[in-house]
Write a structure and sequence with these properties.
There is one protein chain. This protein has about 200 residues and is of the alpha+beta class. The protein is built from three helices and six strands, in the order ββαββββαα. It has a four-stranded antiparallel β-sheet, with helices on one face. Strands 4-5 form a two-stranded antiparallel sheet. Strand 1 and strand 2 form a beta hairpin.
Length: about 200
Amino acid sequence: MPAPKPSTLGPLQPNRFRPPRGQKRVYLPNFTLTLLRTPFAPPNYATFITPLHLNKLDLKDYLYNLYGVEVLSVRSYVQQARVRQDKPGARLPKPRRWYRPRASKKMTIEMPATSPFIYPEAPTDFTAWDKEMQERAQETREKEQKAMGTEGTRLPKEDGKTLREQAEELLKGKKAWRPGWMDWDLGGRPKGEVGAGVGM
């Protein structure tokens, strides 16, 4: 009795339960992806801020066709924004008129361990971006917002502190009191200024 011949293997069939990769053609995408810095994540993970309408397959095809990045898995979640009073940009926010800004969507991809992605080091010199001026402007805006808010009346005023120091100096005899009108001439200009004189 002859021995049975081994069966030949046929061509591999694609898994019909697994969606194809890189076959969705996207021309001139009208969305923006923001890569986040994640120093505590493994080097083969990357997190993006994506539009709400973008799904996992779109992100995989986008990265594969444009950058040649092979994505093993994608995890996504939608982060709701905090409820605030009135809509953004209102000149005078109305109380008890609640508004929730638009939510944001984040996606985390897993890449092969053989091709890790290392984010560039954070810059230490911010002279080119004038960071000091931006920080001072931010502090000034925060002070103005606190002064205009409900707690503004309870904050110590800088003018009051100056008047208190001047009163203490007068009481201690460090300075002599002098009427303010003596520092101005009849023309309404400070004495010693060029052009000061008697008004006609």
